[in-house]
Amino acid sequence: MRHSATTPEQLLWQCLKGRKLGHKFSRQMPIGPYFADFLCRELKFVIELDGTSHDQSVNHDIRRDAYCHSLGFQILRISNRDVMTNLEGVVSHIKTTLAQAHPHPLPPAGGE
């Protein structure tokens, strides 16, 4: 893991772990040289929480998002403030987004 979990990460993890939203999520999972806050491999779906350091790391986030998108991952960014003040709304938004998420199919074997 890249750091100890923040309070918003801990709160959201309680809502995601154990397939509570119908899909398996993992915390602090590597995707190439980057780490995803929360990852659902089955849907190639990443949830990133943005806190006060987000403003200082925008260029890093842009590079990470571009890299993840190039591999077919969908990224949902949520502010720490939203998690802290509207966790129910955040979870509802994640459920809606998950219902619309579709993993990119792998190319056929043999290059066809």
Automatic annotation (TrEMBL):
InterPro entries (UniProt xref): DUF559, Endonuclease_DUF559_bact, Restrct_endonuc-II-like
Originating species: Sphingobium xenophagum
Protein name in the entry: DUF559 domain-containing protein
Transmembrane segments: none
First and last residue of the signal peptide: none
Pfam families: DUF559
Organism classification: Bacteria, Pseudomonadati, Pseudomonadota, Alphaproteobacteria, Sphingomonadales
Domain called DUF559: residue spans: 1-98
SUPFAM superfamilies: Restriction endonuclease-like
